[in-house]
Amino acid sequence: MSNSEFAEPYTIIEPFGGPFKGDVTVPGDKSISHRAVLFAAMAEGTSHLSGVLDSEDVRASIRAVEALGAEVDLKAQPDGSLSGTVTGWGAEGPSQPAAPIDCGNSGTTARLLMGIVAPWDIEVTITGDESLKKRPMRRIVAPLAKMGVDFKPETPETLPITVCGNRALRAIDYASPMASAQLKTAVLLAGVFADGTTTVNEPAPSRNHTELMLPEFNVPTTAGTRVATVTGPAEMLASDVVVPGDPSSAAFVAAAALLKPGSSVTIQNVSLNPARIGFVRTLERMGADIRESYGGHEGKEPRGTITVNYTPVLRGCEIPSQHIASVIDEIPVLALVAAHARGITVFHEVGELRVKESDRLKAIIDGLALLGVDAWEEGDDLFVEGNPQLQVPQGLVFESYGDHRLAMTWALVGACGRVPVSVTRFTCVAVSYPDFLADLKGLVK
Ligand SMILES: O=C(O)C1=C[C@@H](OP(=O)(O)O)[C@@H](O)[C@H](O)C1
Ligand SMILES: C=C(OP(=O)(O)O)C(=O)O
């Protein structure tokens, strides 16, 4: 069977051979890196950052804060991370940028930026690439409008959007319709400069890096499981941030170890924030030999190691909707693991996957179909019927849709299997994990 009629440029991923063994360090956490750069830019004084992820998405945040007047002096380190200083605009506020700010492929940059520029007397046009311009922005516009922010056009759904800032924002108590850390963060960041306490309640817990990091920048903040507050107006002061490794990148290494017989891998210095390691909990429920080991904190973020051993028999499991936010970016690769497990895996309430960098729900179902694996949607639930005897056919071409998480997921089929596969637009992995293939190759024994 072949589906090689795809016209887009593709990369051939040959089988890597032997099992994956040994230690690996994954690059800095993307969510924490964005926040470190953005919060340092907002603060008074000079912050020292290290372990920052050097990827396309984080570079979008760096370019954005430079356009708004922050001074960024982050340099590439031998380990591939960025380290150095960011001097913020502090009490003076950001300057009026000369041109629209292009956030590239990064939803986090675009959505957090809307909250960051909202409390200042400037008009900032935010735009992005073709993928980002399709993603929903009304979820950010709605609460910011309640706080007193105007937009051009008046009630925009998608980028480009011009945010017309307002120095007299109202603090709000917001019942968020979804578990989204981007939404929560945009509102809290605007709330830093509003008069009073701004509260965001969520229907399920989302990642809490913002609540953990804001107090380090001198912002009075409270953090509960489904509620966070900031009290403004606050004076943001510079801080130092050390960024631990990204669990979302670690999930691909863990999946590789589970797909390749004989593998045994330890991922060093990775964030063990419970809101981010839902994939460890999910793989445990599938019966995988995987465990984390706590190794201390960076600021308020726990970090440590994750060890994964190849496990011959995995079984399907259910991921309830309350846990989806803790695995949201890992669902493509978890679905690939589920495709090798015995029985059905159900991811509940994953409609949000339709509006990520691509329609990940459709892409997962189509990609698994190429492998001969039955996967389908019922309402907003994703079902994957696994096959432990899965044989990968020759000549497969997987469509990444320029989406980094899909590109890495399908690359694992070739890297861990016995026949090469092709992945279209594979270079998009630079969005979150530029050295993905090299790190995996380094583990081949
Ligand atoms: O706040 C963040 O850093 C992120 C939150 C999540 O998005 P949502 O807030 O849209 O769920 C996640 O998918 C994204 O990769 C990063
Ligand atoms: C959804 C993602 O990122 P963002 O929303 O920042 O584009 C991701 O990294 O998988």
Automatic annotation (TrEMBL):
UniProt-listed Pfam families: EPSP_synthase
Location(s) in or outside the cell: Cytoplasm
Residue stretches in coiled coil: none
Keyword Transferase in annotation: yes
InterPro entries noted in UniProt: Enolpyruvate_Tfrase_dom (IPR001986), Enolpyruvate_Tfrase_sf (IPR036968), EPSP_synthase (IPR006264), EPSP_synthase_CS (IPR023193), RNA3'P_cycl/enolpyr_Trfase_a/b (IPR013792)
A GO cellular component annotation in the UniProt record: cytoplasm
Enolpyruvate transferase domain span: 18-439
Primary location recorded for the protein, binned into one broad class: cytoplasm
Gene Ontology MF terms: 3-phosphoshikimate 1-carboxyvinyltransferase activity
Active site: 329
Keywords: Amino-acid biosynthesis, Aromatic amino acid biosynthesis, Cytoplasm, Transferase
Biochemical pathway: Metabolic intermediate biosynthesis; chorismate biosynthesis; chorismate from D-erythrose 4-phosphate and phosphoenolpyruvate: step 6/7
Sites where the protein binds 3-phosphoshikimate: 30-31, 35, 180, 182, 329, 356
Residues reported to bind phosphoenolpyruvate: 30, 107, 135, 182, 360, 405
UniProt EC number: 2.5.1.19
Gene Ontology biological-process entries: amino acid biosynthetic process; aromatic amino acid family biosynthetic process; chorismate biosynthetic process
CDD domains membership: EPSP_synthase (cd01556)
UniProt catalytic activity: 3-phosphoshikimate + phosphoenolpyruvate = 5-O-(1-carboxyvinyl)-3-phosphoshikimate + phosphate
UniProt KW Zinc keyword: no
Protein family: Belongs to the EPSP synthase family.
Assembly mode: Monomer.
Function text: Catalyzes the transfer of the enolpyruvyl moiety of phosphoenolpyruvate (PEP) to the 5-hydroxyl of shikimate-3-phosphate (S3P) to produce enolpyruvyl shikimate-3-phosphate and inorganic phosphate.
Protein's name according to its UniProt entry: 3-phosphoshikimate 1-carboxyvinyltransferase
The gene coding this protein: aroA
